[in-house]
Design goal:
globular, alpha+beta
């Protein structure tokens, strides 16, 4: 079973328990070690931040004992947060001025997601993920 299939399997488990939607994610360390395989738990946790990707990142950080996941890879059935409006106080330049290194992600987005030396985004196992989505739809589960 490949990594995406493991994330789909985990999503299916919690989806059937009505804990969240058809969303799964996994974080893999640079050496290929699986750090986390999680799913969406928004409904069960009553937490709008409990998306599969966020849960996977949180768990991977716990496993590594670090907030830094440099070199890790994330697999997710979908990248989704359902937020339309964001208000913020400081700019990326403000963060950079005091030493944070987030400018690379802003540059990546501004440049149309093309610079693969910054971030690689690749579709994987779409058909398998669509099956999971169809199962959720057919069960008339909550859309949030």
């Amino acid at each position: 079973m490949n990594i995406m299939e493991l994330a789909i399997k985990r999503a299916r488990e919690t989806m059937s328990q009505n804990l969240g939607g058809p969303f799964g994610a996994a974080v893999i360390d640079r050496d290929g070690t699986i750090l986390s395989i999680t799913s969406n738990s928004v409904l069960g946790d009553h937490d709008p931040t409990a998306h599969a990707e966020v849960n996977a990142i949180r768990e991977a950080c716990k496993v590594k004992g670090s907030h830094d996941l440099t070199g890790c890879v994330i697999y997710a059935t979908i990248i989704w947060a359902n937020i339309k409006t964001v208000y913020y106080g400081c700019t990326p330049a403000d963060a950079e001025e005091i030493g944070f290194r987030d400018d690379f992600i802003y540059n990546f987005i501004q440049d149309g997601l093309q610079d693969k030396t910054i971030l690689e985004i690749e579709e994987k196992n779409r058909q398998d993920c669509l099956v999971l989505f169809k199962e959720y739809q057919e069960q008339s589960k909550e859309i949030y």
